[in-house]
Amino acid sequence: MKLQPELIIEIGDKIIRQKANSLLKSFFVMLACQMKQVYFPASIVATDGTTHDVYSHRCNFQIEGIRIGSGTTAVDICNDYALESELSNITYANLSISYSCDVSEANIQIYQEATNSDTVDKTVSEIGIYCKTAVNSVGSTVTCCMDRSLLVSPITLQPDQTMKITYKLKYVP
């Protein structure tokens, strides 16, 4: 039995599949908090670098989107809280989430498109999944990164070019 995060990237007619590197501490803290259904005595660091306690709330795990960056530092599952270097002038569109289950696997797929809106090439070397996290009992939220993955080989995103990204969190019995 394995939990296997995977990235599927389409750019032009090229399809790249690779293992997603790491679910981060924030994912596991939110999951434990939701399971306990109360304040959980652990904190997370939001993508803006601020530290917060985590509370059980219906908004936890609400996906804000897939983000792309140019960072290359190895993933640290206990201390990473955002992309190392999020790219600017990227337009994100068509966020969708789906679920499927059959005898061979159960999975959740998060899909988003990222278009280079700049006039220069962008080098993509990291991908992150950003979501909301409740930081008090009334549901005030911050943004956190639940997965940061480094690409095996960086991808060049040319001006006006769109990258289609699918993050697949699958469980194989």
Question: What does this protein structure show overall?
Answer:
A five-stranded antiparallel sheet has the order 2-1-11-8-7, with no helix packed on it. It has one helix and eleven strands, in the order E-E-E-H-E-E-E-E-E-E-E-E. The chain has one domain (2-172). With 173 residues, the protein is mostly beta strands. Strand 4 (40-45) and strand 5 (51-54) form a beta hairpin. The mean pLDDT is 92.
Strand content: over 45%
- Order of strands in the sheet with most strands: 2-1-11-8-7
How many domains comprise the coordinates? Answer: 1
Please work out how many helical segments DSSP would assign.
1
- Class by SSE composition: mainly beta
- End-to-end Cα distance, whole Å, is 4 Å
| Tally of DSSP β-strands | 11
Order of helices and strands: EEEHEEEEEEEE
Q: Tell me the overall shape.
A: globular
Major beta-sheet overview? 5 strands, antiparallel
The portion of residues assigned to helices is under 10%
Q: Any idea what the radius of gyration is?
A: 16 Å
In round numbers, the mean pLDDT is 92
**Uncertain spans, ≥5 residues at pLDDT below 50?**
none
Summarize it.
The chain has 173 residues and is mainly beta. It has one helix spanning 25-36, and strands at residues 2-11, 14-19, 22-23, 40-45, 51-54, 63-69, 90-101, 106-116, 122-134, 141-157, 162-172.
Feature tags:
173 residues; mainly beta; five-stranded antiparallel β-sheet; four-stranded antiparallel β-sheet; 1 helix; 57% strand
